[in-house]
Amino acid sequence: MARERTLAMIKPDVVKKNVLGPVFTAIEEAGLRPVALRRTQLSKSQAEGFYAVHRQRPFFGELTEFMSSGPAVLMVLEGEDAIGRWRELLGATNPAEAVDGTLRKRFGTNIQCNGFHGSDAPETAAFEIGYLFPGMDIVPA
Ligand code: CMP
User: Is the CB of 5 within 6 Å of ligand 1?
Assistant: First the structure.
């Protein structure tokens, strides 16, 4: 498996719960390294641009409201199979359906406020990293 980068986000519901410690422990135990990190509150239009592929979905308005409702923690994670490993740590989109021990099961709230985001493919990761860390020179792990 190739060394990869993925965009990882801790969404406003989980930032509010103040449980960053166990999230970073899970990242480290999975052999992933945060190589870029920022805490910010997305504007509604930034959230709309980030989730542009979901623009036609019925939940788009509520999703982008939620995503801009409070601070989020944005990261670039690097490591072997980073995209797949981070998504495996997260579990299913709906926390209620996620396997025990996954981050969404442990800390997510509901299908919309599901605690975390992870890129789903190398092309998506490249777009999302460029979108949220524009022009940043990210030093490799
Ligand atoms: P994420 O992995 O960030 O990708 C798209 C997001 O849309 C997803 O997490 C959820 O936050 C949200 N989402 C997906 N399905 C639904 C749904 N059925 N109802 C509301 N929100 C959803």
Answer: no
